[in-house]
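hey can u run this one w/ flavin-adenine dinucleotide bound, need the structure tokens asap thx
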Amino acid sequence: MNLIHTKLKAKIISKQELVPHIFLLKLKAPLLTQSAIPGQFIHIQCSENNYPLLRRPFSLHRIDKKKGEAYILFQVVGEGTKILSQRKEEEYLDILGPLGNGFNLNLESKSIMLVGGGMGVAPLLALAEEGVKMGKKVKVLISALTKNLIIREEAFKKCGAEVEVITEDGSYSDQGLITDLLKKNLQKKDYLPEQLFACGPKAMLKEVVKICTGFPFDLQVSLEERMGCGIGACLGCVCKIKVAEKKDRKNFQNDYVYKRVCIDGPIFKGEEVVWDD
Ligand SMILES: Cc1cc2nc3c(=O)[nH]c(=O)nc-3n(C[C@H](O)[C@H](O)[C@H](O)COP(=O)(O)OP(=O)(O)OC[C@H]3O[C@@H](n4cnc5c(N)ncnc54)[C@H](O)[C@@H]3O)c2cc1C
Ligand code: FES
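ok here u go:
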């Protein structure tokens, strides 16, 4: 459990609208980047006043420890993200972080696969960069509705990862869903990862777990729930996690316990999540 959560001011160094309604913010936040790991998130006060009252959670998209810079990638979906998209360069954001447990990247694994559905790519670039730095072979599968909405393909390639893209309308490469691309890759068997990491909508993650059942690799999924405090106090973000035999983590029973996505997650083992809610 991560108990380090610092309240910080992070300066907006740059803001880019990559495709309509999807923004990339570069923040100066050396204290944050010092201890942050891929898969963790920050809780941002979107405005300079108290509206909206609650902070909003965003994954760390890139973590540049040398420069003390962190990036977030976000889509405007409501009031908080709209206000955040209107904040200007040189302004300071009030943030809490780094929060959450982060991905567990094994030192020993030689090959990893990252699966990001739509905005699910957000926490995966930091992970791809870390994987490449550790000498792993990194393959990334990403999806978008259409060619013009594909995000971060070049950034993944630039960091040294192999990238495959699928679009729902077939306007770029194959037509289908991210889960179709995953199935195709696992059927080929020429690149079986030792660890697979997935992020995206709940329905997609549920399907990813189903597709990966029976494969020997370690599967980790990044969950999203609406959050209140972000630090484990309000129980606003609970999800159901299956109870496993102590000696056998693969042998999950039907019993479950409630876990907080903000502090026990957002990363969980794929097979331990109860999806039917
Ligand atoms: C750990 C974590 C990491 C996240 N990382 C990112 C990220 O890197 N980039 C990004 O674009 N978004 C991310 N999100 C989702 C982001 O926090 C929400 O989109 C944001 O809080 C919406 O705020 P809003 O005020 O604009 O929208 P609201 O007005 O609060 O909601 C607008 C719509 O979005 C839905 N929504 C709001 N919050 C969530 C949520 N947490 N999960 C699912 N649906 C939600 C609501 O049900 C509603 O339909 C993350 C969420 C979590 C929990
Ligand atoms: S958001 Fe408050 S406990 Fe998770």
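The longest helix spans residues 178-188. anyway lmk if its weird
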